[in-house]
Specification:
The chain has no helices and 20 strands. With 236 residues, the chain is mainly β. The radius of gyration is 17 Å and the shape is globular.
Length: 236
């Protein structure tokens, strides 16, 4: 059993368990799971949040060259302070890449591109390992996410709530997202309007927002994200 309290980018192998025991009450988390074995064999990861609750099996599709989407598992620190993920020894898949995302996770961002998202409307690349954060001013701000790839998924975190954005959704678009626990609160926004863009307005409330990509390196190579302040101060 390996310590995962900082939510860092890790490789989960057969017979191993990653355990995070530092989930904060009132905060929502996403477990990002990528099948990293490089072939078309699916992986099954067991997620446990409490001894009183049965493990939840999550299937991560296998793809050649490790180019698949992430499977997302949403959990809340209000339901449990601990989450454990594992691949049993009987599983046919040898390895899965995993990390935790939230407004405060991962604490250890080694291997990820962790950087501020400026509110100047400048387009930034939004690739597999990108994590952006911002404290938008107390006014309206425009968020724009663009991708030409079918089923491009990203997640926006706000303390106890998450928004899953899906550009160019395919059939059963939200199947890659699995919520576990009664306190998990999230919504899914589907972007179906050409040119492959999701545009939405968010109002800053003095708290931090975080955005993370949940697509493969290849499919997210041309994706962009931008945040633009629409007014300098709250309107009277």
């Amino acid at each position: 059993m390996a310590n995962w309290d900082q939510g860092q980018l890790s490789t989960l192998s057969q017979g191993n368990t990653l355990t995070c025991s530092t989930l904060a009450s009132g905060q929502l988390y996403a477990i990002f799971l990528y099948n990293s074995q490089g072939n078309d064999q699916n992986a099954t990861v067991n997620v446990v949040t409490a001894n009183s609750t049965a493990p939840v099996p999550i299937t991560i599709p296998g793809t050649t060259a490790n180019e698949g989407l992430a499977s997302l598992v949403l959990v809340s620190g209000s339901d449990s302070s601990t989450v454990a993920i594992s691949i049993t020894a009987s599983s046919a898949a040898p390895s899965v890449q995993a990390w935790l995302g939230s407004v405060g996770m991962p604490i250890n961002t080694s291997g990820l591109n962790n950087q501020p998202l400026q509110t100047n409307g400048s387009k930034q690349t939004f690739a597999k390992y990108d994590r952006y954060f911002a404290v938008p001013p107390s006014s309206w701000n425009a968020l724009t996410i663009t991708s030409k790839i079918t089923q491009f998924i990203s997640v926006q975190f706000q303390e106890a709530f998450a928004t899953v954005y899906i550009c160019n959704p395919g059939p059963n678009a939200a199947a890659a997202v699995t919520p576990i626990g009664p306190s998990v609160k999230y919504t899914t926004v589907l972007g179906t309007t050409p040119p492959q863009t999701i545009s939405t307005n968010i109002f800053g409330n003095g708290s931090q927002f975080v955005w993370m990509s949940a697509d493969s390196s290849q499919d997210s190579s041309a994706a962009t994200i931008a945040l633009q302040r629409l007014s300098l101060k709250a309107l009277e």
